[in-house]
Specification:
Strand content: 15-25%
Helix content: 25-40%
Number of domains: 1
Order of helices and strands: EHHHEEEHHEEHHEHH
Structural class: alpha/beta
Largest sheet: 7 strands, mixed
Radius of gyration: 18 Å
Strand order of the largest sheet: 1-2-7-5-6-3-4
Distance between the termini: 32 Å
Number of strands: 7
Shape: globular
């Protein structure tokens, strides 16, 4: 397992990735512009030591089972069919619930991941990173990046075992990146807002 400081991971490894409401990504440019910082590394230093970033390679079919208890950044529709973090009665999907509907052949949910399943059928062209944010103070984890890929991999593990085994043996790796902190919910506030009740 490869481990590093959480802020170093966010700043260097994923600096070009757009995670929308990631607080640090929003705050740093705002502070840099407001206070006219030429070197934002000083601002990142404020967040040193708030958590860790661990990278594990997916090597067995059991490794992906841990996702069943995770949440997704996607929200379930409420009784009126509306969904989202700002909608009353709409809550985060659980990975296990969502993938169960995919495995049963739910057309709506399957449409989300069918193109990914098809593309993975021809093998890996490069490494895949699935990023999980784990908040240790509320003991909840959610997939913040690679949602469709993680669901597609779980589908392949259950429905196309041969393809899944070939992916694991590929020269490219499938990595589970875990961002772990007691304040992860603050770093991804919109994604975690319904999980803090």
């Amino acid at each position: 397992m490869d481990s590093q400081d959480l802020i170093d991971c966010l700043h260097y490894k994923y600096r070009k990735r757009n995670w929308g409401f990631d607080t640090i990504r929003w705050l740093i440019p705002y502070l840099a512009q407001t206070f006219e910082f030429d070197d934002v590394s000083y601002l990142y230093n404020v967040f040193q030591g708030i958590g860790t970033c661990n990278c594990e390679k997916l090597t067995t079919s059991m490794d992906i089972e841990q996702f069943l208890d995770y949440y997704l950044v996607w929200y379930k529709p409420n009784n009126d069919g509306q969904s989202g973090p700002n909608i009353e009665g709409s809550t985060n999907h659980r990975f296990g619930e969502y993938v169960a509907t995919v495995l049963k052949g739910s057309a709506d949910n399957m449409n989300q991941i069918k193109p990914i399943i098809e593309s993975l059928g021809s093998g890996l062209d490069n490494n895949i990173d699935i990023v999980v944010a784990l908040d240790t103070s509320i003991n909840k984890a959610l997939v913040v990046d690679g949602t469709k890929r993680s669901l597609a991999l779980y589908y392949l593990k259950n429905k196309e075992r041969g393809n899944f085994t070939r992916l694991l043996a590929s020269k490219h790796s499938i990595n589970i990146i875990t961002l772990k902190s007691s304040i992860t919910r603050i770093l991804f506030p919109v994604d975690f807002c319904k999980l803090c009740d």
